[in-house]
Amino acid sequence: RAKKVGIGQTVVFNDAMICSLRERVSMLSSLKQDLDRHRLYLVYQPQIHLQSGQLIGVEALIRWVDESGQMISPVVFIELAEQSGLIVKLGEWVLRRALYDCAELCRVHPGFRVGVNVSPLQFQQADFVAQVKAALAEQGLEGQHLDLEITESVSMSYAEETVEKFNALRELGITISIDDFGTGFSSLSYLEKLHADCLKIDRSFVDKLTTSASGYRIAQTILTLGQRLNMRVLAEGIETDAQLNELLKLNCDAGQGYLIARPMKLDALNEWIQVYTEQQTLNV
Ligand code: C2E
Ligand code: MG
Ligand code: MG
Ligand code: MG
What GO molecular function annotations does the UniProt record carry, in alphabetical order (predicted)? Predict the structure, then answer.
């Protein structure tokens, strides 16, 4: 992780840092190239309404397999893209691609909705709302088909601008989810002003839900908060039946995780939806 260095401070590089700096520079340049060559792709993870089991949408997640065939985690390259500014272009590509795929799925499933992760720098662009509007128009989609996932840390900074942007996005019919909720530092009065639609409980709390008392209490607190502030709550990273049952008891609205489905390429998603919705109708 690069440290921000103030004026007059000295940075001492050790061997490990130089090596990692070199690696980062070369990784960034292959990332740029692969973005231009359309070698990045998206996978989609289903999100369901927990009580009914109904499919409510999917989250788009970016994937990069570099030229040597190595899969690089988005946690690594998104941060690199964020620091270098490449995220603005990359984020726009993700948005357009996700909406293109969403439009295709809408031909079969008319109410289909896709969630797209938005990075801090991307969200802070002055023309961000215009960019989103244009991407929707390009596919002839209404805002109702799009959910934007913004991390807690981003939504809590730049107060005035953020509230304005959230309002403008909501006017387009777009919903907003606060991603990784519970890992940042929310101001509760500010959270209320944002009128986000959904809080996503960070996976780390879902992980501990059934194994530690504090994990349980945190999840419970986030759920109460969401209910009081009129927001839906989605639990991410559900991996076990025990977690699912606990979330059902706690009245959690929605969830996603390996237990329900892994992120998939568009074709696999199409098939998954087919099978899943058939099962759903049989169960009702
Ligand atoms: P996130 O937005 O919180 O996404 C959830 C992550 O949890 C994804 O990791 C997903 O594959 C993983 N996950 C889902 N269910 C489970 C589960 O049951 N167990 C476990 N262990 N993991 C689960 P992924 O795809 O590696 O993405 C990591 C992070 O990278 C994302 O966290 C997001 O912050 C960022 N990211 C991914 N795609 C994009 C993108 O297109 N744009 C931006 N700006 N960030 C992205
Ligand atoms: Mg997300
Ligand atoms: Mg998340
Ligand atoms: Mg997360």
Answer: cyclic-guanylate-specific phosphodiesterase activity
